[in-house]
Amino acid sequence: MHWEAYHCVESIEEALQLLDEYAGASRVIAGGTDLVIQLKNHQRRVKALVSLSSIKALRYIEQDGETIRIGALSTHNELAKSDLLMEKAKALSLAARAVGSPQIRNIGTVGGNIVNAQPAADTAIALLALGAKAKIVSSTGERVEVLENLFKGIGESSVNPAKEIVTEFIFPAFFRSAFQRLALRKAFTLPIINVAVALLIDQKNICREARIAIGPVSTVPFRAKKAEAILNNEIISEKKLVLAAAEAMREINPRDSLLRGSAMYRRAMVKVLLERALRDAVVVK
Ligand SMILES: Cc1cc2nc3c(=O)[nH]c(=O)nc-3n(C[C@H](O)[C@H](O)[C@H](O)COP(=O)(O)OP(=O)(O)OC[C@H]3O[C@@H](n4cnc5c(N)ncnc54)[C@H](O)[C@@H]3O)c2cc1C
Questions:
Q1: pLDDT surpassing 70 at residue 6
Q2: Ligand 1 pocket, 165 CB below 6 A?
Q3: Single pTM value for the model
Q4: CA-CA to 96 of 20 to 30 Å: which in 6, 70, 122, 125?
Q5: Domains (range + CATH), the chain
């Protein structure tokens, strides 16, 4: 685990300038809960690290009209404690509460969780269901990516932390959402399955938009579009929720895993968890 320099910056501009100076040989670090382990295991090599932790402008959770905006440096704990998220984006609030342990939640950030691109990353599953977009800046400009276009494979995202910084996540405030997670223990453990749903239901009880995300059942956080199609533009009923959950069970492709259980078991659990999540999202509290 060797690097020549560790820079603590206080602004995005300063960070981008340093990344440019190192021309691909440095990398941004946030909480370090993924990256430090990767450096220690020689999975990554860098000449310098550019720490974003002191950039206060990247830590916020706010509503702007019909949109929720979250600074990428917000920690899981900040997400978990936010009353705004519990009210307007319950899936994300519950997902953040499920991450690791208090120590990990205190320093691990939502931006790092997304860029690290694990198929079962808890906040990735929630943000995917919520239809989030990521704002990404570099010295050459800014781009906005729909979250599902960001995930390229296990541990691979389209963001290049040697050049680019994710600054914020943006998603609509109008969804009813929910999150369910199955794991061997309640804390500090990998999810066997995690599921997030976001539903837009009108006054006639018709589902105008359904979004369902499931992990880890593919190489990237997975959207169950066939299950969504069963709910879209239909009157919400218990029968429809059960049908959608059964469809999701068919469209996923989990692997047999020593750590997470057999494919057959995980397929069956997706149906159980998704039914629970859909019921939870439908009920107005
Ligand atoms: C013991 C333990 C338990 C864990 N449990 C869970 C769990 O239950 N659920 C779960 O989902 N995760 C879990 N994690 C994983 C981890 O905590 C999260 O992925 C965390 O959110 C990563 O954020 P970070 O700030 O620590 O990222 P870092 O480790 O600092 O960075 C991760 C990657 O993202 C890049 N990066 C970070 N921020 C940015 C940015 N703003 N812009 C561009 N690139 C960026 C870095 O260069 C690096 O490649 C666990 C980790 C540990 C060590």
A1: yes
A2: yes
A3: 0.97
A4: 6
A5: 5-51 (3.30.43), 56-172 (3.30.465.10), 176-282 (3.30.390.50)
